[in-house]
Amino acid sequence: MVQPLLKYPDSRIRLISANVRFFNDELLQWITDMVDTMKENDLDALSAIMIGIQYNVIVIKNADTYLPYVNARVIKCIGNVIQTERSTYYEGFSVDVERFENVTVIYEDEKGEPHHQDLSGDSARIFQHQLDYCFGSTFVDRVDREMKQRINNHLEFGLVANGSSCPMVFVRDYFKRGAKYVMALIALSFIIPFFTSAGVRELIYRIDTYLLLAVPVLMIAYFFYALYESRLYKQCTSCQIGNIIGTTAIMATQLLLVGLGVFFWVAP
What DSSP string runs through 98-136? Predict the structure, then answer.
């Protein structure tokens, strides 16, 4: 059944969409309603919240098929590109938005089966645009302050207030990525003993020990910034304390293994 689309200034656009827990007939009806609404309005993609359904469901048109993405998340992103975007919610204007050019996403289908998919170009942009809605955000939240103010002045009631929505990429991930890169660099030095003299081996060993000191610093920065984000984005499953502790424990184990390799293999 065709459903009415949310239009400005409906504040439901800022609701955080919950994960789907039951893959039943109700979910199938939501997807059917979304497809019917897309056909009626000639849309290439739609998130469930756009028809008032507060669940993380996205449907994207691919040729003549309509593919549902349930409980979708972005797990990898590469490159940036700026293109003009518009929305059925904020009608009457368009803005240039910077997004990731290539993304890897994980999701479940209507039966609850897990999938992952690499998206690039327009497909990646469309997906990110719709995922914003699931996290209580819109494309205008991704423009700079000056442009946002111009949009705010243009709209009759100003921009709909933004809540604490879940970002697709967390700042804490940069600390984690840095720690992994440093440990990977140290691991590469394990081949040094096969090809170098004792003097070079001594130099590499000293460099490795300094790099090892950097990893705990990055881990501590990750842990405390992750705690900060857990308070800021309480609704995000990835912000739960258990996940943060688990990730930190995994990095600590990796650090232990790399450290043992340095002191028992690389050390002259």
Answer: EEEEEEEEEEE-TT--EEEEEEEHHHHHHHHHHHHHHTT
